[in-house]
Amino acid sequence: MTIRTSASWPVDLPRHIDVPRTSVHYNLEVSAHRYPDKPLAIFYDTPMTYGAAWRQARALAGFLRQRCSVRRRDRVLLFMQNCPQFIVSFYGILQADAMVVPVNPMNLSEELRHYATDSDARTIVCGQELYPHVQPLLEQGVLDHAIVTAYSDYATAATDLPVPEAVRAPRIAIGDRGVTLWHEALDAALDPGPSVTGPDDLCVMPYTSGTTGLPKGCVHTHASVMFTSVAGTLWFGQIADTTLLATLPFFHVTGMQGSMNGPIFAGATVVLMQRWDRDVAARLIERYRVKAWTNIATMAIDFLANPNLGDYDLSSLRRIGGGGAAMPEAVAARLKDLVGLDYTEGYGLSETMAPTHINPPQQPRRQCLGIPIFDTDARVVNPETLAEVGVGEVGEIVVHGPQIFRGYWKNPQATRDAFIEMEGRPFFRTGDLGRVDGDGYYYIVDRLKRMINASGFKVWPAEVEAMLYRHPAIQEACVIATPDTTRGETVKAMIVLRPEDRAHVGIEDIVEWSRTQMAAYKIPRIVEFVEHLPKSATGKVQWRQLQEKEWANAG
Fold first, then answer.
1. 250 closest CA partner among 375, 452, 93
2. pTM as predicted
3. Residues of 255-280 as b/e, b for ≥16 C-beta within 10 angstroms?
4. What is residue 212's predicted lDDT score, i.e. its pLDDT?
5. DSSP code of 157?
6. Three-class SS state of 230
7. CATH code, 502
């Protein structure tokens, strides 16, 4: 059967696209040859040209191969905030024929340990402010090599912008075993030799989680990463003259594809922010005549709440959109009044390397996932019988397309569970309950998987529960979502303390302990002590009952 397409397909776009059968890092090489002196990134008014980025990526690749013994298909951890070095590292790792394992910079040592041991990575490239989380893994032999960079090395121009502390911090010397400073690695100027990577080789492995509690690696090839890099560029008509504002984190697939890999394919310029600041964002849009900005709802809400917004010239904007969570109707309306643009929402997951659905730019609908993009077939099925349901009926969204991952790293059972076969083709089960209307637009209704969406960050309750059980006073724990006016949702923990600890362990003790164990966005901001948790006849905690009660109490 041919791939289904929407009646609202953009009139100027083909239904099928031919994507280059080359490696992702070749895109940087091509753009560097085309635009050697053009800024690829502008970092607090300091530019990094395409030519410089490509030369540095090659130098890093040479160091990884010759000094860190990185070989083809090896995994290398990339652990830093948004900065030009992230771009150089990403493409340098790929040039070394290795696989990038992007890690959320909010993660702490024990979380980082899982990424290292599960991926079998022996080398990490990190920001110097994150090195304290890396150091124990080097000392214990979990990692062999760390290349550590100071963001200030790439923010050298005079600027009137308020620069984040981590960017201002000067380079520090680190003499620990296995550590090489970034400038030393590049100054070695080692030749990486030829790359033998093809489209079906390992490229990027973002981690996601689920019901087991431990994050799982999503295996993507150069072909799947190339597809959404090209697809997003074509969908929005992005060209070399486009200037984009990058505020989403590069470790996440939406920021990675929409604000890094897609622009590099097009030869565009990225105005890069390390941390969100609504005034800085407005000033950068005005200063660099930014045309496109991909964000999440919480950023847009904060941006519009700026009382000084009227002082900035935002007339250069031609596109604004994002995903992660539905944009509230009132916020989208205000944005339309302010800049005359509809907020264009899209939908994707780590397993799909960003979009499977995007709203047509000429006919976007609010609080809507959009329509399946090029060469992508989406259906809605009954989650129990797996039979396709009718238009307007609710079921699980399943997707088939070139952007779908190969499977979960070293987890064949989870991979089998993630797919169903329809008409002889594998469809990925998204775990999201939704519906499709008569025009082919998709809408999310609920979640089949347990997940909390806090400011666009996905929090998996089972993972937080697993970490909470390390606390010696916790007997049982159940993590659920609770409404939050700013974050959309936030993390709530229902906890049963051990009888001997109930008199001397308080809620703040649990919260403070959590801050030392897990990334900030995972920390339970609300903790409730209870006498017991509801359980099924087989002894399983009935989390859904607690979740439904929480939503009912919140109205």
1. 93
2. 0.88
3. bbbbbbbbbbbbbbbbbbbbebbbeb
4. 59
5. S
6. helix
7. 3.30.300.30
